[in-house]
Amino acid sequence: MALLTKKDANLIIDPLADNNPITIQVLGICSALAITAELKASVVMALSVIFVMGVGNVVISLMRNIIPSKIRIIVQLVVIAALVIVVDQVLKAFAYELSKTLAVFVGLIITNCIIMGRFEAFALGNGPWRSFLDGIGNALGYGVILIIVGFFRELLGSGTLFGYPVLGDPIGKTGLYSIGYENNGFMILPPAALIVVGIIIWVQRSRNTALIEEN
Amino acid sequence: MLEHLELFFKSIFIDNMVFAVFLGMCSYLAVSKKVATAVGLGAAVIFVLGVTVPLNWLLDQYILQEGALSWLGAEYADYDLSFLSFIMFIATIATMVQLVEIVVEKFSPALYNSLGIFLPLIAVNCAILGGSLFMQAREIPSLALAFNYGISSGIGWFLAILAIAAIREKIRYSNVPPPLRGLGITFIITGLMGIGFQSFGGMLTGGDEGADSPVPETVVREAVLPEAEGEAVEVETEKKKEEVVISYNDALNK
């Protein structure tokens, strides 16, 4: 018996490309843009969201029959907030410098619309295992975009990846810098993130024309 | 008074919720197809931020901060409940949004009809929680300033969504490359507007207080490169030179 049936596997694969939470569903943009100036922060953010979504979707799915629908938003917020507090405390304990860089954006996972969106759209109507897969899938789709954006912004903006110089030394003029290459400081500024995501959307939609929107 | 004015303009233009820290992007992108609906949501955001930021300031000061419980008695003085702030803030926001909805429905049905569908959405708008978290992170010193911060960052968000809605209404008539239509071009326009708003960064650096903290404490800017930091240092030294010059002139006049 396969661990995942085809239908279950689609729950994970779909959000990675054709139903990506950021580029197609337009959910969870805020944090995707704000913390992607460095690859390391993007990876940690992606991992945090994967944790919160995987666990949160299971919890909500288990409780779906006992939550009164009128107060479900508050219940969902409490579940997410509790999980985010766990993430925040873990980060503060084991990666203090990084938690300083992420600052309030760890807290803002609470209002990350991907999480609420998937709770509403999926976990409230499906069993725990499928909800778990859906949560992981969507969080991975989110993480992929985050990492792509973080990769380009850090590489082009500061010539490093995970903080290690990969294009040579800009001060000693070695590597690429010896032939006159300069870092593009614009990539570090907040607006660059928007433009990078815009370009990702452009590339994705020109490859898959079914996704093109009406004007 | 001056600090109020400074915070007001700083929150609207320099630390703009959308262009500088990307808060509330989800509703910013989803509800900006028409100017009329954008205005409704923007007004609701100003209102809710104006209510929740001061409330959360009170919570932060009297319950959550380290030693904040000392008003209960000396034995409570060592408690530090700040790890609870996420859950307290979001609970306040969710409750307030619900309350505001009930009150508005009762006393102003016209306003309720225009805001109606947006109010519940606001509970999960990151701009609202972000306002409270930034208020906590920046250690805003007084209740009045917290109120000011809430209102002015709401106005900043309102301006941003109004502008993008107007542009999106017009862009329908232009020939955008098909894969960029809709979401893609909106992202790029927002990026360009963000670049425009960056230029407001120099607005408050002329004053004395502005010079101490010329840039908002966004994450992105903390991660600024060595060379960019070098530039910042240069700017600061230039500023110091200016100050020196002024005092020299003053000295001459005397």
From TrEMBL, chain A:
Keywords, comma-separated and alphabetical: Cell inner membrane, Cell membrane, Ion transport, Membrane, NAD, Sodium, Sodium transport, Translocase, Transmembrane, Transmembrane helix, Transport, Ubiquinone
Its domain of life? Bacteria
Q: Which residues form the signal peptide?
A: none
> What's its catalytic activity?
a ubiquinone + n Na(+)(in) + NADH + H(+) = a ubiquinol + n Na(+)(out) + NAD(+)
EC numbers for this chain: 7.2.1.1
Q: How does it sit in the membrane?
A: Multi-pass membrane protein
Where is this chain's protein located in or outside the cell? Cell membrane; Endomembrane system
InterPro entries in the record: NqrD (IPR011292), NqrDE/RnfAE (IPR003667)
- Membrane-traversing stretches: 41-62, 74-95, 101-119, 131-152, 185-203
Q: Which Pfam families match?
A: Rnf-Nqr
Recorded hits in HAMAP family, A to Z, give: NqrD (MF_00428)
Query: What family does the entry list?
Result: Belongs to the NqrDE/RnfAE family.
User: Its function?
Assistant: NQR complex catalyzes the reduction of ubiquinone-1 to ubiquinol by two successive reactions, coupled with the transport of Na(+) ions from the cytoplasm to the periplasm. NqrA to NqrE are probably involved in the second step, the conversion of ubisemiquinone to ubiquinol.
On subunit structure and binding partners, the annotation says: Composed of six subunits; NqrA, NqrB, NqrC, NqrD, NqrE and NqrF.
Q: Which NCBIfam families does its entry note?
A: nqrD (TIGR01939), PRK09292.1 (NF006777), PRK12405.1 (NF009070)
Its recorded name reads Na(+)-translocating NADH-quinone reductase subunit D
Give the lineage.
Bacteria, Pseudomonadati, Bacteroidota, Flavobacteriia, Flavobacteriales
Automatic annotation (TrEMBL), chain B:
Q: Which reaction does it catalyse?
A: a ubiquinone + n Na(+)(in) + NADH + H(+) = a ubiquinol + n Na(+)(out) + NAD(+)
Q: Which organism is it from?
A: Robiginitalea aurantiaca
Its subcellular locations are: Cell membrane; Endomembrane system
Q: Which residues cross the membrane?
A: 12-31, 38-59, 79-104, 111-134, 146-167, 179-200
The reply to whether Cytoplasm figures as a keyword in the UniProt entry is no
- The source's superkingdom equals Bacteria
Question: What is the protein's quaternary organization?
Answer: Composed of six subunits; NqrA, NqrB, NqrC, NqrD, NqrE and NqrF.
Provide the topology term for how it sits in the membrane.
Answer: Multi-pass membrane protein
The protein's name in its UniProt record: Na(+)-translocating NADH-quinone reductase subunit E
Q: Which gene encodes it?
A: nqrE
Q: Which UniProt keywords apply?
A: Cell inner membrane, Cell membrane, Ion transport, Membrane, NAD, Sodium, Sodium transport, Translocase, Transmembrane, Transmembrane helix, Transport, Ubiquinone
Q: What does this protein do?
A: NQR complex catalyzes the reduction of ubiquinone-1 to ubiquinol by two successive reactions, coupled with the transport of Na(+) ions from the cytoplasm to the periplasm. NqrA to NqrE are probably involved in the second step, the conversion of ubisemiquinone to ubiquinol.
Write down the Pfam families for this protein, in alphabetical order: Rnf-Nqr
- Keyword Manganese found: no
E.C. numbers: 7.2.1.1
Give the UniProt family note. Answer: Belongs to the NqrDE/RnfAE family.
